[in-house]
Amino acid sequence: MHEKIEKHKEEEIEKWHLAGFESITVPAGTFSCQHWKKDEGAGDVWVSDKISPFGMVKYISSGESMVLVKVIADAKDHITGPVKIFDPEEMKRQMMEKMQQEKPQQP
């Protein structure tokens, strides 16, 4: 499953090319960005290594757009314990188990 996701990401990245470097202003501020253009159809994205976790500052495509409106610099990590890889089957099992426990007992 993980290999399929990685392959899909690689295929998607191959559809874009670096158009240059630009300084852009959005509600969150002004950033030095890489400007990427989609090879097929409409699509522009501006990314900065100063923005985490994804780096996206602005995105424009046919019918939709997104801009960074706020940068949170002092966010606290609330993850406790070791990070686990998401397992949809385990989640399903846990949900079914919980549903069985919550089911009213019939006399």
Task: Describe this structure as you would to a colleague.
- This protein is of the alpha+beta class and about 110 residues long.
- The protein has a domain at about 1-70.
- About 25% of the residues lie in helices and about 35% in strands.
- It is built from two helices and five strands, in the order αβββββα.
- The protein has helices spanning about 1-15, 90-100, and strands at about 15-25, 30-40, 45, 55-60, 65.
- A five-stranded antiparallel sheet has the order 1-2-3-4-5, with no helix packed on it.
- A hairpin with an 8-residue loop joins β3 (about 45) and β4.
- The longest helix has 15 residues, at about 90-100.
- It starts with a helix and ends in a 5-residue tail after the last helix.
Q: Distance between termini?
A: 44 Å
* Alpha-carbon Rg, integer: 21 Å
Helix content: 25-40%
Q: What is the structural class? A: alpha+beta
Major sheet details: 5 strands, antiparallel
Query: From N to C, what is the helix and strand string?
Result: HEEEEEH
* Overall residue-averaged pLDDT value: 87
Spatial arrangement of strands, main beta sheet: 1-2-3-4-5
Indicate the proportion of strand residues.
Answer: 25-35%
Q: What gross morphology would you assign?
A: elongated
Treating each run of at least 4 consecutive H or I residues as one helix, how many helices? Answer: 2
* Count of individual beta strands: 5
Low-pLDDT runs of 5+ residues are none
